[in-house]
Design a protein that fits this description.
This is BTG1 protein. By secondary structure, the chain is an alpha+beta fold. It has 6 helices and 5 strands. It has a 5-stranded mixed sheet with strand order 1-2-3-4-5. The two termini are 13 Å apart. About 20% of the residues have low confidence.
């Protein structure tokens, strides 16, 4: 999950151009390390939605600290990151699933999904257990129909 998320952000930087391959490799490794450390005590495979908000990577007029830390290691400023990455990005890194949304009203797209051990489907403990659900429920604009899209690499 962490590798998929870090690779996705790295691909966004690569697509924007202006960052060398060695810098991108270092960025990806630094981001993976920062995410592993940050998520160490907030990873619950038996209850994948637990801690979802803590693991949510967000760019929304502020740079996510994990992305900012990894970019700083390769000499990219927050200002440069805002030029290279989408201004509105949400990336959910959960056990068994990584998904993202670009823009506030964009579709939620699944980057990675794997079955849970034992073949059990995730049980939703309550209606507002994940960062994604908080976003959907807390909308102030009229609800819209959102399509899920699976992206494979």
């Amino acid at each position: 999950e962490i590798s998929t998320a870090a690779a996705f952000v790295t691909r966004l930087l690569r697509a924007a151009g202006g960052v060398g391959e060695e810098q991108l490799r270092c960025f990806r490794e630094c981001l993976q390390g920062a995410m592993r450390e940050h998520y160490k005590h907030h990873w619950f495979p038996l209850v994948p939605s637990k801690g979802s908000g803590y693991r949510c990577i967000r760019i929304n007029h502020k740079m996510d600290p994990l992305i900012g830390k990894a970019a700083g290691m390769i000499g990219l400023s927050h200002e440069r990151l805002f030029q290279l990455l989408p201004s509105e990005l949400t990336l959910w890194v959960d056990p068994f699933e990584v998904s993202y949304r670009i823009g506030e009203d964009g579709s939620i797209c699944v980057l990675y999904e794997s079955p849970q051990p034992g073949g059990k489907a995730a049980k939703q403990l309550e209606s507002r257990t994940s960062c994604k659900e908080e976003w959907r429920i807390g909308r102030s604009s009229p609800s819209k129909s959102y399509n899920m899209m699976t992206v494979s690499s």
